[in-house]
Structure formats: structure tokens, C-alpha cells
Write a structure and sequence with these properties.
Layout: E1 3-4, E2 11-14, E3 21-24, E4 26-28, H1 41-53, E5 58-62, H2 69-77, E6 87-92, E7 94-96, E8 102-105, H3 109-123, E9 128-133, H4 142-154, E10 158-164, H5 168-177, E11 182-186, H6 199-206, E12 209-213, H7 237-256, H8 261-270, E13 276-281, H9 285-292, E14 297-298, H10 301-312, H11 323-326
Parallel strand pairs: 4-5, 4-13, 5-6, 6-9, 9-10, 10-11, 11-12, 12-13
Antiparallel strand pairs: 1-14, 2-3, 7-8
Amino acid sequence: MSTYTENPTVNTRRLGTQGPRVTSPGLGAMSMSGAYGPTRYEESIAAIHSYVDAGGTLIDTGDFYGAGHNEMLIGAALRERNREDVVISLKFGAVLAPDGSFIGFDTRPDAIRNSLAYSLKRLGTDHVDIYRPARLDPSVPIEETVGAISDLVDAGYVRHIGLSEVGSETIRRAAATAPISDLQIEYSLLSRGIEENGILAACRELGIGVTAYGALAKGLFAGSVGGTRAMFPRFQGDNLVHNQRIASTLAEIAAARDVTLPQLAIAWVAAQGEDIVPVVGSRTAEQVAATVSSNGVRLSADDLAVIDSALADSEVRGDRYPSEQMMLLDSER
């Protein structure tokens, strides 16, 4: 049976053999910039402060989250904190129109240098700890992208190179170009593709860590199914009804162990290996506290077997992104 420790502390893990030591779980900041609905500035600042004050170090963002809003928010929150106590993981490359719509990717070397210049200013820092392309740019060889980031490492503006949502072949090509700290990719009780398509195996063979987002299944495990989530196939029509039944089954397993479903879901990701760090999106200090509390959950081998058995009876329905976005995922090819 699982055990739960009251007032748990954050755990520390290293991102692969080449990356930094970070705390698990990490804090995903995307939802603080309106991804799932309106937010309050003071509330977001308080959430970041509560994570850092709890000992958390890994904060994940993207220069396109809120068209720079997320970076400025993090910069403001960390202004009176010790910069060296925080590991900022930053994605780049997505190109936005003035209305905020997505219009493509650009990971050419000059574009990378330009993007980082603006990010450093918005974050109020002289370096980024992990810099990664948000998606594979089909018009730019990954060797060029990684090589450009490597030059920024040599110049002191970046400390580690990361990847995001790429397949095993791209991972191998990137790793042959420069040391890679970690791959950021969706991995959860309902998104286990990396176990089957060779991605997780490639990362482990090459000594690359995994920062796993989506542990709460984009909010499904927390009971959040409205708003912009309706764009995702898993939150539509019969798919949603079916997937909610899976969540209910998992909630029963969690309740039998005196933990919440979000705690169980985050703990499950963390239990898949010391090389995996769940990154959980939070918008409030209360959500941060709930995320950190997952460190108090220890799942036994029997617990993991029960969970696997429950999932084997009913596979998730619906892709994890709309079809046009799925086509952009190198990790799904």
C-alpha cells in the first residue's frame, strides 16, 4: 500500500547526466498567462513565491506564453529572490500574430539569438538555465538549432540545452551535436506513448532526463474540464464522458490510499524513474501547495500494479492535441 508523509519537502533530482539538479515536481507557469482563463497578477506572483519558499527550484516557461507576459511575471516574482536558487527552463521558437494566434516556428540561429535577447530582458536575468525549442522546426535541421544554442552556452547566456516534443531520431541527432540535459514531453497516466515509441528508451540510453508535463491530464484529474480545454479532443463529447470514467476509477484507487487523485497522478509520474521530473501547472499558492504535497505519496509496487491493471481495461479516447497541432509533433511521427 502507498504511504503518505505529512508536510513533505521537495525532492531533488538531476536532469540526465549533463543537466542541472532541480526539485521535483517543477512549477509550470503557462496557466498564469491566461492559457486556461483569466488570471490575477498578485495571485500569480504569490504562487511563484510559495513554490520558491517551499524549496522549489524548477520553473518552466515559454517566451510565447502570453506573448512575453509569462517571462515578465516570473522576472518580477524573482526580483527579490536569489537568482542562483532558481532553474529557469525556457522554450522558444513559436511565432505569434498580433491577435495571439500561432503562425509557425522559427528556430534559425539568428532567430534564436534574437529571441534570447528579448527573453533575458523580460526575465531580468543574464542567463537562462535550460533553453529549448518548443517544437521541431521542419525547415531547420536540429543540428543547426542545437548548435546555435551551444554557442550561447559557450558565451554564458545559456547553461544547458533541452528539447521538447521530439522523437527518438531527432533526440539522437541533437545529442550527437551537443550535450542535452532533458526532453520535455507530455507523460501521464493517460499519455504513456513515450514508453512504447522508443522515446523514453532513447533518453535513458543517452543519459537525457525527462521533464514530464501534463501529469494532471490538462486538468481532467483535478476536475477542470471547461474553458479552452474544449479545444482538446479528449475533452470533447463522448471522449470526455469516457475519459471522466477513467478518472473516476483512478480517483477510487487514490481514495482507498487516503490521497487525492492529483497527488496520485503526480506521484505516479515521479515513480517512473529518478530521471523523470513532473512539471505541474499551477495558478495559485493553494495549487502549488497541493502539487508539493504529492512528494508525500510513496507508491508501492502493488499500487503501481493496481493502477496499470485499471488502465488496461479502458484506454484513453481522443488525441492529446487537435489534429493540426498533432501534425506539428515530431514525437508523434
